[in-house]
Amino acid sequence: MQYLNKADAFRERQLAFGDVWAFIAAGFVLVGSPGPATLSLAAAGAAFDTRTARIYLFGIMTGAALVVIGVAGGLLTAILSIPYAAGFLGTISFAYLLYLAYRIATAPPSGAGSVVAAAPGFMTGLVFNLSNPKAYAAFAALFASFDLFPGVPFYAAVAEVLICFAILVIADFAWLFTGSALRRHLHDPRKSRFINVIFAVLLIISVIPALTVLL
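Request: output the structure for the sequence above.
Response:
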């Protein structure tokens, strides 16, 4: 009987490999899909010099990493339990998004001589993703839908956090370089300006669904 109990305990601690692939697929859909952070990275790549845009990328990734850890540790539930906290979070997010949209829309077109505008910095990306409602919603949905280590919540949380980190790195770099590749083909200042404005508008639109839930 003692041997059977130990065997059952060992099985409970085994990684559910079938769920891992489903978790990765869902992660790329939720985290890597167009949203405020990912669109802002593509917009930064298209509107600014790639080297300076990478500083913003690291801020976005750091903010997302902190959100992942916070959601895994129950931070989202604690935040939403505070009166007016959700509304405050949504207001900060929208204010930062308007700032980013303005910076992107007014960035010098890529064909405008040798003028290179400075992209938003590390702190802008950090604060923006810390207040990004889609990030909290996406990671909360992931963690609530899967249990990679059945019966061992700590192991499950660690595995899910590490996988989310890997997805973040791949998705965020992909969006930044997609925007950068687009910039290299926009030698006409008018077309470049048009793309910048389109990205700015898409940024604002992308956060509306999440804000309607929070506000």
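The longest helix spans residues 153-184.
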